[in-house]
Amino acid sequence: DTQAVPEQSPATWRQPEGGSVVMTYQLRNGDTVHWYKQLPGEPPKRILYVSEMNPVFDDGSDRRKYQVRKRASEPLYTIQINNVNQRDAGTYYCAYWYSYQGITVLDGPR
C-alpha cells in the first residue's frame, strides 16, 4: 500500500515541566518506525527507531527520556516523553520503512 498516510496524534500539545507526554502513531504497514525532533531553523534529527520491537537510540542518554510501545494486535505505536522540560520543545515527526515486492519505501507525515 504505497499510498498509506501515517496518522499521528495529538497534532499539538503543551505540558508543564516535569510531566510526561504521549503521542500515538498509526500506520498500515511498517517494518521499522523512526521518530525525529526538529527545532526551528534546523533539520529534523532522529531520536530513535524501532525494528522488530527493539528501540535503538541515536543518543544512548535518551533511553530514560523516551519510551516506545507497540500494540500487538494493531500497527499502533506510542512514544512517551518523560520529565518534560524546555529542551523538549520542538516539532516531532514519525516515519516508517516498509518493503513492497522487494522495494523499500520511506513514508512519513504529509
Please tell me about this protein's structure:
It is a single chain. The protein is mainly β and 110 residues long. It has one domain (7-97): Immunoglobulins (Immunoglobulin-like). Helices cover 0% and strands 48% of the residues. The protein has no helices and 9 strands. Strands 5-4-3-8-9 form a 5-stranded antiparallel β-sheet, with no helix packed on it. Strands 1-2-7-6 form a 4-stranded antiparallel β-sheet, with no helix packed on it. Strand 8 (91-100) and strand 9 (103-107) form a beta hairpin. The radius of gyration is 14 Å and the shape is globular. The model has no long low-confidence stretch (mean pLDDT 78). One of its GO terms (cellular component) is membrane. Residues 10-106 form the Immunoglobulin domain. This is Ig-like domain-containing protein. Residues 20-96 form the Immunoglobulin V-set domain.
